[in-house]
Amino acid sequence: MSSPEPEMPKTYKTAKAFCLTSAGWFTMATSAGMIGAGYLIAPDFMANIEWIHFGRIRPIHVNINLFGFVTPGLLAAAFYFLPRLLRTELYSEKLGIVSCVLWNIYVFAGVVGIGLGYTQGREYAELAWPVDILVGISFGLVVFNLLMTVRQRKEPILYVSIWYACAAVLLTATTYCIGNVIWRPDTGALLGIPDAIILWFYGHNVFGLLLTPLGLAVAYYVLPLVSRSPLYSHTLSLIGFWSLLVVYTHIGTHHLLQVPVPTWLKVIAIVDSVAMVIPVMIFLINIWYTVKGKLGVIYADIAGKFIFTGTIMYFFVNIQGSIMSLPQVQRVTHFNNWVVAHAHLGVLGFAGMTALGGLYYILPKITGKPLYSRFLADLQYWFVLIGVVGFTIGLTIAGLIQGNAWINGEALYRVLPEIHIYYVARASTGLLVAIAAYLGLYNVIRTLFFNPGVSR
Ligand code: HEM
Ligand code: HEM
Question: Domain total for the chain?
């Protein structure tokens, strides 16, 4: 019989580093979003500042959100819960810190690169080749660290959060390299239609195989603990996991319904986009039954509140997604603000809120002290909620105006005055989200480094 291992002091350095990364980049992402929103209200606003004009600030905003704010926030929680669920230590905290430093370098390099005009010009795959390599290495190190932690586990049963978290990083490390065509450093692209197909295979999988499984992993971990209820069904959770992998992986072509891609590919994309209702509802039924009757407890907990709201947004964004994959619907909704509304509902409303909930769940655990300010966290919750709901309503209306006007043959520029007011509304509610990000960073820094030990 082997001797009992000495209890190692848990430092949670990697989880802390990813918390800080997420909170820090959230402020940058929203600041960039405000500049972008400003340009859409007044296109001459800061017209001569090349490195932040709309064509550059938009991908800067999107990349920081995806890779600076949301993913690191969800990873912070994963670095905390994986070892706990597996009853072991993280394989290597040192490796974790190295991966987090590299992660920040690639986000920074990507942002500066796009600002200077170094972009591969493909949506969600803008980053230049050397940065792509850094992304690959960073993801690779995270994958290695998490899988080695699984390997040294003392707990034989793998809870569903572990499946989701490991699948998310492993699959994204792969789809990132494929979608960014990293074997072609000069262009990072194929030619013509095959390039569009491969790009959107990867593009939608940023949401389907990265943000969604990581978000579900966090929700599956935190909500049962906060509500002090056992998971409603483990079997259902695993059926949901495998059906998500089967259905989500190849629906990217629903971004290309207006493009001459092969019809069979469109049919697969549409059918499976509708079939997404299966994994989505399996997750929601499972998690909502788990917390049934405990909404008071959930609401009283800041992490529970963020993540439960995230599940509601998850419901709406996915139902909306399935509907807008239908060609008849997309004739109205494609290429206008409807899609931007959907994007914010999914990336901020579902994944972003879940990431924030994850941060607030782990911060007291990894510091051993209460959150610096529960009041600020609550304020952040309301600001983000009002922001997402405001974005969704305003941009959806703007999208419907645009879509219908174009179907009626109106010239693009003639519609702009009609939607101006919705751009102003987006910037106004956006300001709340930006303030929320700065409040969050302050709260995270105070909790991590200057923690008085009593919550304010
Ligand atoms: C059932 C699941 C979903 C389906 C079927 C779906 C469907 C779609 C479709 C059809 C589009 C393209 C619209 C167009 O260009 O006309 C789209 C765009 C988008 N979706 Fe979803 N969606 C789903 C879930 C999600 C989730 C969970 C997220 C975020 C976590 C998300 C984020 C986005 C984003 C950011 C875009 C904008 C892409 C762009 O820049 O064009 N979606 N979605
Ligand atoms: C201060 C708050 C924010 C403002 C003012 C803002 C503004 C904008 C603007 C102006 C665009 C470009 C839309 C266009 O091309 O017409 C955009 C795109 C986008 N934003 Fe934000 N945003 C904010 C926060 C966020 C956050 C926190 C997230 C995610 C966590 C996010 C995710 C996205 C995504 C995924 C897109 C791409 C949409 C698409 O391709 O359809 N935004 N945002």
Answer: 1
